[in-house]
Amino acid sequence: MNVLWIPGWSIPFDRWKELCSPFQKAELEGMFIDFRACQRREDFLQLVLDTIDGHQGEWLLAGWSMGSMIAIEAATLRKARVKGLFLLSSGLQFSQSDHHPSGIPLAVIRHMSRQLKRNRTDTLTSFYEQMFSDSEKSLGLDQAFLQTLEAGDPFYHWQNESLIAGLDYLANVQLLQGWPTVSVPITWIHGSDDTICPSPASGLFSPSKRLIIVEGAGHVPFYTQDSVVINAWEELLGNVY
User: Fold this and answer.
1) What does the DSSP 8-state code read for residue 21?
2) Nearest residue to 88 (alpha-carbon basis) of 206, 196, 239, 240
């Protein structure tokens, strides 16, 4: 069984590997997606599909935030190869619309794109700070996370072109129609206090599509309450491996 770890928007490749290290299993072949070369909205999904197609065997896709959306898309297109999904802080649509009023307004996403060109550092720092709930911030977890990112090699940082392409993906992709066709075991982890991706509607889930709400967590529950998420990961592995 192969496991493909798909990061969220802007997270450097080396930091993503480190963040995923508590979930690694010696008996599983773990691979990590690096989105730095993506220049268009379509490139993100294509890179994941190319990775699946380029290796033999079955896959479990594990994604965070935007990476979870891409994992869901890939599962709808590679049904014979993908045997399970582990989704962290995801959404079936990121942007606001008439049928998704809780999403982020398109004007805000476009503003972020413009701000990246003017002040990249402040734009990213502001986004990272929004990932954490008030209780997590009171423990200093937001600052610890920023230090983890800053400790990485700048070589692995996304360039503005990739960041803007990722925002274009988030502004335009919606997965509500494809979600019912995904029939593999799914564990979806979501923080109760996530303000970037609000908790999904419970009606979207079933016994094979499990939703776990982590109380008090923001957008990074696998970092702030890792034991809860690791236990859920172990249970999903027991169902698919």
Assistant:
1) G
2) 196
